[in-house]
Amino acid sequence: MGVDRGRAAWRGRHLGAPNLTQTGAKLVRGAETLHPFTNFAHAKRAQTGANCGPGVEVLHPFTNFAHAKRTGTAPARRHDGTVGARELAKLEAELVDCRACPRLVEWRERVAREKRAAFRDETYWGRPVPGFGPADARMLIVGLAPAAHGANRTGRMFTGDRSGDVLYAALHAVGLASQPTALRIGDGLELYGTRITAPVHCAPPDNKPTPEERDNCRTWLEAELPLLAPTLRTIVVLGGFGWQALLPVLANAGWQVPRPRPKFGHGVRVPLTGPRPIEVFGCYHVSQQNTFTGRLTPAMLEDVLAAAADAAEIQRPAGAG
Ligand code: SF4
């Protein structure tokens, strides 16, 4: 699927979904943690200060490219000189206003209002969480959905929860992240050649999106993938949900996905031909359910990440796992 078709698809799907900025909602200034994205019109409106969404304080969006580059959210231009990063930033700016799934909108905002006691002094993000990492990534990690008090709180994928602790520690161990911890936007974390996204961008109750919500959100992945395709070489899918969500997107985007579709499994590798050859890797999800029980160990995770990084020909520091 071409970029225009992809964008047209999600525009069509999300047309009519209330847009916070269009409804006159306001954005709060002065939040301690800022969320970098680059919708100039939105950001300009935000600078007037105000509230966004019913009873939900949200963080202040802005357009500081230097900061965005540091945090990895709106990265540098692509190797091939296109303006993919700018397109990706626009897509993210649209995404964070999405309200297409009523159940998830209600849940993400309720969690943001009520908060967990340990985070009661924090301002939750409480909105769709965009992908994290450079637009010219060679490797994409596809998870499931933001955690209620993790990414739904911090506004960055896998940031601020136990799953993220495991994932970023492994990414750092294999030379794909600048540091092993992910606490908040602006903590200095940078990803190397790697981007993280999700098939569902809003926190679902019990970490279980419905099939309808998965299908709603697929349009965002369908729009994101063509923007990443010029440099993308490998995709690591964390868990069966992401696997089931991703394969149809790849097929629609022109990759030759075998029938019957390859089954998810830890360590599974599926090379696909299409617009460009890519290889899809299966990996157990980094949920506590898997990591606490030893179903997924740090070594198992690092092995998959390192193999996918090498297949993508990402240069990693000597001695990295
Ligand atoms: S889950 Fe996806 S489609 Fe549904 S409201 Fe969130 S961003 Fe929109």
Bound ligands, named by name, code or SMILES: iron/sulfur cluster
Task: Let me know the CATH homologous superfamily.
Answer: Uracil-DNA glycosylase-like domain
Number of helices: 11
- The ordered string of helix (H) and strand (E) elements is HEHEHHHEHHEHEHEEHH
Number of E-type strands: 7
Q: How far do the termini sit from each other?
A: 36 Å
How many domains is the backbone divided into? 1
Strand content: 5-15%
Enumerate the spans where pLDDT stays under 50 for 5 or more consecutive residues: 1-81
Shape: globular
Largest sheet: 5 strands, mixed
Radius of gyration: 18 Å
What fold name stands as the CATH topology? Uracil-DNA Glycosylase, subunit E
Mean pLDDT over all positions: 80
Provide the CATH top-level class. Alpha Beta
Explained architecture:
By secondary structure, the chain is an alpha/beta fold. The protein has one domain: Uracil-DNA glycosylase-like domain (Uracil-DNA Glycosylase, subunit E, 3-Layer(aba) Sandwich). It has eleven helices and seven strands. The chain has helices spanning 3-14, 40-46, 65-71, 84-95, 102-114, 151-154, 162-173, 211-228, 240-252, 288-291, 298-311; strands spanning 35-36, 61-62, 139-142, 194-197, 234-238, 269-272, 278-283. The strands form two sheets. The chain has a five-stranded mixed beta sheet, with helices on both faces. α2 links the parallel β1 and β2 (61-62). α4 runs antiparallel to α8 (211-228) and α7 packs across α11. The radius of gyration is 18 Å and the shape is globular. Mean pLDDT is 80; it is low at 1-81.
